Amino acid sequence: MIYCAFVGSFKDKRLSQMSNEYLRQLERWWPVTVVTLPEKTKDILKFIEQKKDKGLMVSLDAHGEKMDSASFISWVTQSSRDIYFLGWGADGPPAEVVKLKLKSLGVSPMTFSHELARVLLLEQLYRSGATLKNHPYPK
Question: What are phi and psi of 112, to 5 degrees?
């Protein structure tokens, strides 16, 4: 199972619509749950504490590990655990979360808004599922 826990909600309706469209399509390949986290650090830490033993926690971070699509597909599909992607607001992860030393993933070597980074993550998850099912989308 894939979980995407994002701090705050979309302000740009167009990006929200894109996100919802990828999510709708992605659900054909595997179960995905999107959760909106409050912006309070204590609530974020509580969520992480409750979920950390249930799966792999992956913090989206501009300075995180960079993967090309093929590597991402391989990594996601080889995981035997649930994956929790944690997406942040414009300031990135809170210092208290950085101290936890979670796996950190950058969606691109370029800098994107946090809202667009969410859309990019969902697109890559959709691309991963489509690739595994030999769907023509990734070609």
Answer: -125, 160
Span 59-98, pLDDT tens digits: 998 889 999 999 999 999 888 889 999 999 888 899 999 9
pTM above 0.85, yes or no: yes
What is the span of the domain harbouring residue 66? 2-132
At 27, is the secondary structure helix, strand, or coil?
coil
CA angle 96, 102, 107 (to 5 degrees): 105
DSSP states of 81-109: SEEEEEE--TT-S-HHHHTT--EEEES-S
Query: pLDDT for 98-138, tens place per residue?
Result: 999 999 999 988 888 889 999 999 999 999 999 988 988 87
Hunting for tokens 């659900």 — which residue is that? 27
- 21: domain CATH number is 3.40.1280.10
Contact 4, 32 (CB under 8 A): yes
Q: Tell me how many degrees the CA angle 86-3-126 measures, rounded to the nearest 5.
A: 100
Structure tokens at 28: 């054909």
- Please count the structural domains in the chain: 1
